[in-house]
Write a structure and sequence with these properties.
The complex is a heterodimer. Chain A is mainly α. Among the domains of chain A are: 42 residues, no CATH class; 70 residues. Helix content of chain A is 68%, strand content 0%. By secondary structure, chain B is mainly α. Chain B has one domain. Classes of the chains: A mainly alpha, B mainly alpha.
């Protein structure tokens, strides 16, 4: 590069930096200055965290189905000896597809045999611990993904029967989402333990859930129907507890 | 025949020395350890006992690293020889272009296989250290993975004779990784497209290398059991046929190349 080239390059570089500084200076004012959530992940990924969180939930779902992606495209044409009725439609659709096209696809045939198990098996009991890392990753990616928190709680409480783990999950969830009615309801259910647990602490959690739901409904929002159900559910537990106490 | 064997062995030795001298494999192993050790120490929500996610991550790294090694090995077979003009003494041995191609390919595949075997030794050791056991489907998974590596080296080798190094590595990685993750879904994607684009997608589905055929990671991680013997040999036959076609094309390109 000769001297003229170097000078031109330098001028262009300075002009570019000036433009960038000017652009940033102007647009910084328009940009939102508050990032939802906390920590480096929130700053780096912004709203993409919600999508990443859902990807991890999807992965956990595939683990629950023994490694099968329940979009089930690759299972076409493959026989499942022990299959749930819930997913029959999906697979039936593929069988019809194959029949309608009337042509043999060797690539699909290979995929359906290599990438699908002979038997569709769900994880159960203590095996469901395998789901925990994915849900953990999901709530780390988006701590406000309440569905991920409640699903994790469900697995710990109902499938693994590990009440201590379930309470830890809810406690962590409530730390990130204080006064969330769904998580409060989950905590109440674990403490209540189908009538075998601590009534006073359970009542406290259910009451908190009802109050939090009512506050949320007053504010309004997109998940209104869900919150109504949560409030009903928590209230039903409170009624049941009152009946039990009256009987005693 | 004896001469061919001696020439091939010499080329294989050369590829081995080049791969292991470059320290790529050790750098990748260190990177893998840096990722896997913290992961293995994680206790999500204080619960211990989950191991499948570790197996899955480790296998994903093994696949990624093996692809990296294979593409690099394929790319480095001829362009450096052209640039440094060492291709002339090689061809003056005398050795035909076709024989040189086959010898170099076998060398690159053998070197890549040695790296892959090293990765699998580490993977199996990590499984055993965590108290796991050998999966019955592991030998099949390793054989199919070896076949994939042979295919990746052939793809990269052909590309290295047609386009520049960076373009070859990018395109080869794009095709192989794209097919690995989305190959099986291409017919579904084609259904929602306009006829012309759908035809293109279907053509890609028909002729692109189906790297996903060789992926038995889910079988290993979730214990699905071994693949049916017939299917296993069909996949191997697919690899052999595909590699043969790619090498024939590479031989054709190399034969017509002005040196």
């Amino acid at each position: 590069m000769n001297a003229v080239g170097r000078v031109s390059g330098g001028i262009c570089g300075v002009a570019l930096v000036w433009c960038l500084v000017g652009f940033c200076d102007r647009d910084v004012e328009r940009m939102p200055q508050v990032v939802k959530g906390e920590g480096a992940l929130a700053v780096a990924f912004g709203d993409a965290r919600e999508t990443i969180s859902q990807v991890f939930v999807h992965k956990a779902d595939s683990y629950f189905h023994g490694g099968i992606d329940m979009e089930c495209d690759h299972l076409a044409g493959h026989v499942h000896a022990d299959h749930d009725d819930d997913h029959e439609d999906c697979h039936d659709g593929h069988y019809h597809d194959e029949a309608e096209h009337g042509s043999f696809d060797p690539w699909r045939w290979i995929n359906s045999h290599v990438r699908a198990p002979d038997v569709h098996r769900h994880l159960g009991g203590s095996e469901t611990i395998e789901l925990m890392p994915w849900f953990w990753a999901s709530v780390k990616a988006d701590p406000h993904n309440i569905e991920a928190w409640t699903t994790t709680w469900y697995i710990a409480n109902n499938m693994m029967k590990d009440r201590a783990l379930a309470l830890r999950v809810v406690a962590e969830g409530l730390e990130k989402n204080p006064d969330d009615p769904e998580l409060l309801l989950c905590r109440g259910r674990t403490i209540y333990d189908n009538g075998r647990g601590e009534f006073a602490a359970a009542r406290e959690a259910f009451l908190a859930a009802v109050e939090a739901a009512s506050r949320m409904l007053q504010r309004g929002g997109s998940a209104e129907e869900r919150i109504v159900q949560v409030r009903k559910f928590a209230q039903a537990y409170l009624d049941e507890m009152a009946k039990r106490e009256a009987r005693q | 025949m004896k001469l061919f064997a001696r020439q091939t062995i010499a080329l294989v030795k050369l590829s081995f020395i080049e791969l292991w001298r470059r320290n790529d494999v050790f750098a990748l192993v260190l990177l893998g350890l840096a990722l896997m050790v913290p992961l293995s120490m994680a206790t999500p929500f204080g619960a211990e006992g989950a191991s499948r996610y570790l197996d899955e991550m480790a296998l994903l790294l093994v696949w990624g690293f093996s692809l990296f090694i294979a593409l690099g090995a394929g790319q480095r077979l001829f362009p450096p020889e052209f640039e440094s003009r060492t291709i002339y003494p090689l061809l003056a041995k005398p050795i035909s272009r076709g024989r040189l191609l086959i010898g170099k390919y076998i060398g690159a595949v053998a070197a890549s296989w040695s790296a892959l075997a090293f990765f699998y030794v580490i993977f199996v050791a990590s499984v055993l250290l965590r108290g796991g056991t050998f999966a019955a489907e592991l030998p099949q998974a390793i054989v199919l993975h070896f076949a994939f590596v042979a295919l990746a080296v052939a793809v990269s080798l052909l590309g290295s004779l047609i386009v520049t190094a960076s373009a070859n590595l990018s395109l080869s990685a794009l095709v192989l990784v794209g097919m690995f993750f989305f190959g099986r879904r291409l017919p579904e994607y084609a259904e929602g497209l306009n006829p012309a684009l759908a035809w293109v997608v279907k053509a890609v589905y028909a002729i692109a290398p189906h790297s996903e055929f060789f992926d038995m990671r889910q079988r290993l991680v979730h214990g699905w059991g071994a693949v049916d013997g017939v299917v296993f040999f069909v996949v191997l036959a697919y690899a052999v046929v595909y590699v043969s076609i790619l090498l024939s094309l590479a031989s054709f390109v190399l034969g017509r190349k002005r040196l």
